[in-house]
Amino acid sequence: MIFLMEALALFSLLYFIVLFFYSGPMTSMLFAWLLFAAACFLFSLWLRFLRRRRASLRIRVMSVTAVMTVFAVIGAAVFVIAGTAALSTDRDADYCIVLGARVRGRKPSVSLKHRIDRAIRYADEHPEAVMVLSGGVGEGEEISEARAIYDALLAAGIPAARMVLEDHSGNTQENISMSRNVIEQCEFDRSRQAMRMAALDRMYLPEDMQRELPESGNLKAREPSVAVLSSSFHLFRALAIARKAGFAEISGIAASTDPVMAVHLWLRETAAVLYGKFMGRL
User: Fold this and answer.
1) Under 8 Å CB-to-CB from 280, ≥6 apart: which residues?
2) DSSP string covering 58-85, please?
3) Cβ partners under 8 Å of residue 272, min gap 6
4) Is 220 helix (H, G, I), strand (E, B) or coil?
5) pLDDT tens digits, 72-88
6) At 210, is the pLDDT very low, low, confident or very high (cuts 50, 70, 90)?
7) How much is the average pLDDT of 166-183?
8) Helix and strand element counts for the chain (H, E)
9) How far is CA 86 from CA 37, 231, 232, 249, 260, in A?
């Protein structure tokens, strides 16, 4: 166990250095790796202290059990999150919400590039889907995340008429809730257009055919199918928030994750999921 803690401390320190130069010092929760390295190293010193002092077996077992319990909870959470990404579907949806990620100036980050690439493929394969592009302007961003996605999809040949921007949200919960408002507005406009067409048909069709048309007031709003597109590590939380927001028919589409950043992103997301569960947000 001592060797394992020392190995984890060394790995965390080296990984921090890699991330610092690969992704930059502004990477979210980057310095958590230094804290984790310090914690692992201090725990290894504690175990050495107990061994030298010939502390009771009960104290040593309790110390190791506490750490292994933390690792087990994290491992179980990662397994559940990974399972959601692995089981994500690519089925038809009326709307596809593309969740934004960091934009550096006007340039999409690596995570956002992966989401954009996946959104382009989905839009090409599902030409009837309306792409709801979600993400506001964060610190260090010259344009909104939604606009960065829009520009990339437009350059890839996706028609502007198929895209709707939601460019005010600042986190995943706002992404989902504000995108829901956008979808509801689109559905309202669609229903209103359908009522206008029904009214026109009633005016110009023969009387016997008019009886077969539904009254405009009887046109019921349908529940559209919605897909949420995000990075594989982020999909579980995004879908959980979407279900809590009231989406009845929801599916997930997973974009790939940068392999260098994968360990950092998956563990960071695991912490966010556990915190969200504890706070009752998921």
Assistant:
1) none
2) HHHHHHHHHHHHHHHHHHHHHHHHHHHH
3) 237
4) coil
5) 999 999 998 988 888 78
6) low
7) 94
8) 9, 7
9) 30, 12, 8, 19, 19
